[in-house]
Specification:
The protein has 708 residues and is an alpha+beta fold. It contains 25 helices and 22 strands. The protein binds nicotinamide-adenine-dinucleotide (NAD) and zinc ion. Nicotinamide-adenine-dinucleotide is lined by residues 34-35, 38, 44-48, 51-52, 79-80, 82, 96-97, 127, 129-130, 134, 150, 184, 234, 261, 299, 323. Its cofactor is Mg(2+); Mn(2+).
Length: 708
């Protein structure tokens, strides 16, 4: 038997069965309630990840204790039994699909299909699994006469009135044919925005996310507004059995004027082998964030009618097709607060601070709320349970709130009245609010940060002078600094010729600073000094860094998916300033590190060749934690820390039991004492300088001696 629940059973292998029959029954009850809510309208009981996990545990329990199994278990019926049964009886059952969650299981599915057929299948289609609601649409003589939901798979509800408005489901076909089209009614991301604007305009609560918006709209009885809907077909049924391949039938449907999954931006490749299918699934998964509509997986189907006939279906799902589910991209979590962020150009945006939530393996702690209009329109409040979507490499967004769980004492967020950074006026004429001072709003802070000792280290460029040049309109970004000349600066209030000359010379001298400092100075969000150094060393040049993909960025130690996305977005935003800096002759590369490789020497983790193994590594290869205190001959404090990292260590500011080494130089204070108390190894600063010199010269014996 178990062909029907195959997908569930496979996933169940990873799920934990319930310990008691009571717990099992309670879970079945919760699944049924959730499915009923899911298929009947805009409200959700739980997010898909939680639902899928619960259902997997139900299936695991049934596998372990078949004697406990509930009648009509949600694992065995279409839509877990949650569909609303209507009075439109389907011409043929509308089934569910079995699920697979990884490549191996898909391969096993294909092997099983081949065994049933007694030969390899004659090709597969790979379609996007649209995250909407299934409907069947009947055309008689080319006219749309009836649209029904899936219901329990046997009979569904009549939704003709609302479905007629779905883009892609035309009133009339190009030819007067009689057929039934099946497909998914959904909302594109853009439709979702428009729908919520209409809804809140009509005084109704906003939808929480696109799928519930589509479900709510399709089943709305009396509509005071016409929220947009879309449709993609994924199958066609005619009176006579099919003779052409599924892919050809769909192309024909497209020609008749119906939108299909194959005609969408996602496309529907036809694949000869399972390996080709897997490659197509990969491509689809990678494009997930950029399609403009939500998908929750890929649907793989045997393309040939003969294969479909031979494979047949169980009562719940066909054997000739399967859904390759992608990890859920939408989760529910608590909105802890709303922060106001002011960008470099003065754009003011609300940012959601979230209770950490795992989305597709990434811990998400903050998300964009787009703009203040949206915040009002989506009716999201601090304290709400919200829906957070993270699709592909895009910055996570809050799509809406779960209104039935809103705390009684919640209050709407008060948008700022004046710019929170400079107290200036806010321009609210555009969707994206801006500080009227634009780039100048944050200029003081960003210039001070750029000039600071740990960044570009520009002597003489302190807060007062920054105020002067910003107020005079001479400088709004760091690149403008390099255009300052002595006569202009000398003409400023309280500036003499001498100090002007010194300042301009200091600014010009900073052009030679290494890339790591340029990066630090630019203040890329989610990077600090040591991360900037790691990025600079890994990529070597600014161009290589700008060209890096989000995946490339994750090759750098300490850069996870959330940080990589932010860094990539920041670099795009900074690109104009970076180009301006480069045009003014600011160095955009990291000086060569350790000397060229000697045969047989290991390559450094960052890809640069080293002659000598990194000395500040523990036996297991992880970096030693090193504190530099007091002065190291020939090095500034920052350079001392840079040197630690070059030598493979991790520099830290405070001494603890976990510190591996403390470098003690002249002027060292309490840190040296503490190191002694804790018994942490101490290296005199001169020895450290010798170590660095030996390392840079590729002198392995010298390195060993310095550390001895
Ligand atoms: N959050 C909740 O409370 C809750 C409750 C119930 C279901 N769900 C979600 O719904 C999923 C299961 O329900 P379901 O109705 O999507 O799936 P299903 O397992 O019944 O799969 C079949 C459905 O996939 C859809 N589909 C989309 N694109 C398709 C394509 N190209 N070809 C064929 N079919 C296509 C159709 O609607 C079809 O009816 C679960 O995985 C779960 O994540 C969530
Ligand atoms: Zn401002």
């Amino acid at each position: 038997m178990q062909e029907a629940g195959a997908g569930l059973v496979v996933d169940a292998a990873r799920a934990e069965p319930f310990a008691s029959v009571e717990d099992y029954r309670a879970a079945v009850g919760r699944v049924r309630e959730a499915a009923a809510a899911y298929y009947s309208g805009p409200d959700l009981a739980m997010d898909d990840a939680v639902y899928d996990a619960l259902l997997a545990r139900v299936a695991a329990t049934e596998a372990a204790r078949p004697d406990w199994k509930a009648d009509e278990s949600p694992t065995e019926v279409v839509g877990a039994g949650g569909g609303v049964v209507g009075d439109v009886v389907h011409s043929a059952p509308m089934l569910s699909l079995d699920n697979v969650f990884d490549e191996d299981t898909l391969r096993r599915w294909a092997v099983r299909l081949e065994r049933i057929l007694g030969r390899p299948a004659g090709g597969f289609t790979v379609e996007p699994k649209i995250d909407g609601l299934a409907v069947a649409a009947r055309y008689v003589d080319g006219r749309l006469v009836q649209v029904a939901t899936r219901g329990d798979g046997r009979a569904g509800e009549d939704v003709t009135g609302q479905a007629r408005r779905a883009a892609g489901l035309p009133e009339r076909l190009a030819e007067p044919v009689t057929l039934e089209v099946r497909g998914e009614v959904f909302m594109t991301d853009a439709d979702f925005e428009r729908a919520n604007a209409m809804r809140t305009g009509a005084g109704e609560p906003a939808f929480a996310h696109p799928r519930s918006a589509a479900a709510g709209t399709l089943r709305a009885q009396d509509r005071t507004y016409d929220a947009p809907l879309s449709f993609f077909a994924y199958s066609v049924h005619r009176a006579e059995p099919p003779t052409v391949a599924h892919s050809d039938a769909m192309a024909e449907l497209e020609r008749l004027g119906v939108a299909t999954t194959g005609g969408s931006v996602a496309g529907t490749p036809v694949c000869a082998t399972v390996e080709e299918v897997l490659a197509a699934v990969q491509v689809l998964s990678a494009s997930r964030g950029t399609l403009g509509f939500g998908i929750d997986g890929a649907v793989i189907k045997a393309d040939q009618p003969a294969d479909r006939d031979a494979a047949g279906s169980s009562s719940r799902a066909p054997r000739w097709g399967v859904a390759y589910k992608f990890p859920a991209d939408t989760r529910m979590t608590r909105l802890l607060g709303i922060e106001v962020q002011i960008g470099r150009t003065g754009v003011i945006t609300p940012v959601a601070v979230l209770e950490p939530v795992q989305i597709d393996g990434v811990t998400v702690t903050s998300a964009t709320l787009h703009n203040f209009d949206d915040l009002v329109r989506r009716n999201v409040r601090p304290g709400d349970v919200v829906f957070v979507r993270r699709a592909g490499d895009v910055i996570p967004e809050v799509t809406g709130a779960k209104l039935d769980e809103r705390p009684a004492d919640s209050v709407p967020f008060e948008p700022p009245v004046r710019c929170p950074r400079c107290d200036g006026e806010i321009d609210r004429t555009q969707k994206r609010w801006r500080c009227t001072r634009g780039r100048a709003c944050g200029a003081h802070e960003s210039l001070a940060y750029y000039a600071a000792r740990h960044s570009m280290d520009i002597e003489g460029l302190g807060g007062k002078i920054i105020d002067l040049v910003v107020a005079a309109g001479l400088v709004t970004d760091p690149a403008d600094l390099y255009d300052l000349d002595v006569p202009t600066v000398a003409g400023l209030d309280r500036m003499g010729e001498v100090s002007a000359t010194k300042l301009v010379a200091g600014i010009q001298a900073s052009k030679g600073q290494p890339l790591a400092r340029v990066l630090t100075g630019l203040g890329v969000r989610m990077t600090g000094r040591s991360m900037s150094r790691r990025l600079a060393r890994h990529f070597g040049t600014m161009q290589a860094l700008l060209d890096a993909s989000v995946e490339d960025l994750q090759q750098v130690e300490g850069v996870g998916p959330e940080r990589a996305v932010t860094i990539a977005a920041e670099l795009v935003e900074l690109a104009p300033v970076i180009a301006k800096l480069a045009a003014r002759g600011v160095n955009m590369s990291e000086p060569d590190l350790p000397p060229p490789a000697v045969a047989g020497a290991p390559a450094a983790a960052d890809g640069s060749a080293t002659a000598v193994p990194l000395p500040l590594r523990r036996p297991d290869g992880t970096p030693m934690t090193v504190v530099v205190t007091g002065s190291v001959p020939g090095l500034t404090r920052d350079e001392g820390n840079e040197a630690v990292e070059r030598l493979g260590g991790k520099s830290s500011g405070s001494v603890s039991k976990r510190t591996d080494l403390v470098v003690v130089g002249d002027g060292a204070g309490s840190k040296a004492d503490k190191a002694e108390q804790l018994g942490v190894r101490i290296l005199p600063a001169e020895r450290f300088a010798t170590l660095l010199a030996a390392f840079q010269a590729g002198d392995e014996a010298g390195v060993a001696e310095a550390l001895a």
